[in-house]
Amino acid sequence: MKRTLISSLTALAVTGGVANAQSFELSSPDIAAGQPIGQRFVFNGFGCTGQNISPALSWKNAPADTKSFAVMVHDPDAPTGGAGFWHWVVVNLPATTTSLAQGAGTADGKLLPTGAQQIATDFGTPGWGGPCPPAGDPPHRYNVTVYALKVEKLELPSNATASLTGFMVNGNTIAKATLSARFGR
Hints:
By secondary structure, this protein is mainly beta. It has one domain: PEBP-like (Phosphatidylethanolamine-binding Protein, Alpha-Beta Complex). 5% of the residues lie in helices and 31% in strands. It is built from one helix and twelve strands. The strands form four sheets. It has a five-stranded antiparallel β-sheet, covered by helices on one side. A three-stranded antiparallel β-sheet has the order 3-6-9, with no helix packed on it. A two-stranded antiparallel ribbon has the order 1-2. It starts with 13 loop residues before the first strand and ends with a strand.
């Protein structure tokens, strides 16, 4: 069943360090805040048997001075010694972008807007890498965040890691909105 829910708990719009009256919002017809992520979006490998399809995302009310967007999906509960696990990293989305279709996170990026760049996830490849926490762990949180950036393009090396990209994204963020869902097995 498709659900649309705007994450009001974690959406944040900040401009110059002051909360913006207009709320930057992220929503998805495929995942709902605080709810389990469907099998269709789960990784296919490492003992998981999902279809590894990226969920559809849409956002609105970005600040007027937004020059590009980035989307990052992170599991802060992954047992990695504190770093968490990056499941999808997309940068240089044009400022005119307000959504990504279901399945846009293919490794080749053909379904992304022109100019968008995917960074290798912690699975070691670009593109969507769905949830796949260790069996028996409590459900993990998956934070899907869209960032409104003050630059048209992030200049990243071709071998940029998700962590370096996150550092550059956060250094250029003027607003962000997050939708957090969960998955366990």
